[in-house]
Write a structure and sequence with these properties.
The complex is a heterodimer of chains A (about 525) and B (about 400). Chain A has 16 helices and 19 strands. Chain A is α/β, with parallel strands linked by helices and about 525 residues long. The termini of chain B are far apart. The model of chain B has no long low-confidence stretch (mean pLDDT about 95). The chains are: A alpha/beta (about 525), B alpha+beta (about 400).
Amino acid sequence: MKYDAIIVGAGHNGLTAACFMARAGLKTVIVEKEDHVGGAAVSLSLTPGWTYSNCSYVCSLLRPEIIRALELPKHGLQVIPYEGGAVFDSKGDYFAYMSDHDALRRELIRHSPRDADGYERYSRAVMRQCKFIKPLLLRTAPDPASMKPRDICELLYILKRFHNLGPREMAETVRFWTMSIAEYLDQYFETPMIKAYIAGSGIIGTGLGPYSPGTAYVLLHHYMGEVDGAIGAWGFARGGMGSITQAMARSFEASGGEIRMGSGLDHFTVRDGKVRGVVLENGDELTAETVVSGMDVRRTFVDHTDEKELPADFVKGVKRYRFRGSSGKLNIALDGMPTFTGAPKDASFLRGDLHFLDDMEEIERAYDDWKDGKWSASPYVDFLIPTQIDPTMAPPGKHYATIFVQYAPYELANGEWNDANREAFAETVISKIERHSRDFRKLIVHKEIRSPKDIEDQVGLTEGNIFQGELTFDQLLFNRPVPGYAQYRSPIKGLYMCGSSTHPGGGVMGAPGANAAREVLSDLGHKIDMGFSA
Amino acid sequence: MQATATSAPLVHLGLEPGPFHERLVAHNRQRAWMNWMGYASPSVLDTVEFEYFAIRNQSTLFDISPMCKYAITGPDAESVVNRLVTRDIRKLKPGRVAYCIWCDEDGQVVDDGTVFRYSATEFRLCCQEPQLSWLEDIAWGFDVEIRDVTREIAGLALQGPTSCALLKDLGLAGIETLKPFGIAGYTIAGAEVSISRTGFTGDLGYELWMEPADALAVWDALTAAGKLRGLRVIGYEALEMARIEAGFLLPKVDFLSAQTVLRADRASTPYELGLDWLVALDKPHFNGRRALLELSKKPPRRKLVAIEIERDKPAHNALVYHRKTREVGMVTSALWSPTCKRNIAYAWLDAPYGQTVAGDLWVEIYLQKEIRWQRRMARCQPVDKPFFVHPRRSATPPADY
């Protein structure tokens, strides 16, 4: 079969790129190894009556420009905001992150009047950084080594924005991009629980601890959605994260695109340094002069490309690119709403993200276990019960809990990820939750346990890294994924990358997919109308 | 180990009741509340118009408890306050109040407020925005204690021509001798009340400070005595009219704190705000002094000026033009002044407008006439502040009305 363009992988970035290309009139096909679309943004039913957001679980970073340009609401996407969140400590107190500004201030004052002030300063500082970085998301990162007018203009654009921050903020930006989240929060807060609550965002999905340099940026990456300003940009996708990719698939098909599911890629066909198409695992051969890979950079070029076709420096760059899976996931069907000993009656913050922590040191100790090749004895969990708001994911009165767990190593020091270890891992998490919710265990109807190894095997993310590669400064902007190849093109003509391994990185954001589509269309000489201006 | 059941209280969403809330609820026939630092503050109780005229004709009560209040005490208290604010606080005697501003290291205004001096070593700062972190930064290395007393002190503004008479009726001996910006201690309804002759209306008036537990008793005593003095409880909207006439600036409306802006160029200097008179460059080191020395040498890049506009329609949110074509600024606060019978406003004007160029300035006013909008260019000119001055504001002793 002959196509204008083939997209490998029906994850949110592959779908986003495909949508834009189909809209530009290209005969586009997506090949997907699973029988469903979604990649790491899926909703699957593993037990009758319940639907899980099996991997990603909160919609925060999906670019509003993309939602709009691809008409996702028309194709069924609804994002519903959730309120607040909380951290419970072992002494029976809690800190609730209230969605109402004044209530949050009173809650902060309850712990420390100084932290109430500190929070204002902190949120202002983070907001200033977000304002600086946000416009860069939907733009291709400039290559500083290039003399092309476009790269020079783009560099000047960034420099100008940087300069506009003023001398104090310029210094702050450099600190922010390189320092640890723990040191960053120490500047603003004194209450250990409050710091622990915020610090979680600095380590989610990252093989680093809160005291590791570089984690402050990871926090920013998570926060960009929250400070978006647009109502309804942060919350649950109604029906689970799969509803995002299902809406994208419908949008793609409405533009005439074709999705081939059930057989994954065997290899890219490459001749004379040019891509000619793909061969699937079932032997099907598809041809196209443009092939876009939504897989991470390691799978794309190490597993599915003949190394001989690639320059050595590129292969070296791909091989040293860091993945380091650090998180696992539990999806649990519950027979009812669990109660929390630490929560007062009628606490609305239970509808948000819940954590069980005393301080940042506890997260750091959890990280120490991971370095030793063990899952954390007292893990950091990001625990949500979306069915308190979303009526579509469990029968009335029943609930679904999504539990993101950090840290879990990709390779265990003692043994491998087998059923016994998976159960033991889940037991560690459940008994930690049980200390704060006595009825939690007995409400469990069904559970899905995913280690980093399972995430790699089932979803295809190398080492189970949820961002397709760590979000540290050495792997961002023009260094993502490999210096010289940060503009979605690979050394093979016609073969592009559109996954989270590329700028601006992971999270269900869609920006890498949209940026890649723009580069593809520009190479094909299309007049580009993405439906938004970056 | 099982976590123990919580004894921590639940912070509720929504507005918080202040110390006078019970009485305010009873008076608030419009059921109109606004959010002031998370407190339920009345915006209008029955009629804005009558509430406003009570400020200029009788006397009025307005709950100012949500103001942020900080106690600064200790051997180095004077040095700390003097380092904080741009005025020379060494000249402020005990029992006196001073209106002040304070700046960051770049000479950009952080906030304005009033400094109360109770003794050689005791100060209190009253302001709009939370300042605890800022104060603690300033106080590094000083022997001083800084405490947030916002919730420990209830405040009431008693403002209007009959306010002194009302207090005399309550038997406050010698209240008529209290000069503007003076502080004195009294007892009302058995409660200790500290009274300062200060306010936000530009009229004769006082601010009463007490413990929250005494708030309702003091309120009741004032409203009982107020029956013969035409006392009305007022909301924010009426006060807003009076403060514009009186020439006072409102943070978040007329200017933004350098601490809260996201865009660096949105902060403003004392010179841009026309508050040069509050900056004592001749005193020793204070926050922002070096930057202010430089800034004082050149004309500000823009300026907040008082303007008067032709005809009677207030110029809310209007843009300002030079020769009706070139956009040179914008209005922040606007009012048809019922007392001055002038159409007044504050506007930010880019240099040189409002400084060396004052002629041919126009504001673009949008008027809605039965759904249809009409655009009107109205001539305006910079004028001196305040718009409203009355000798009774500073007369000591004040007359009974």
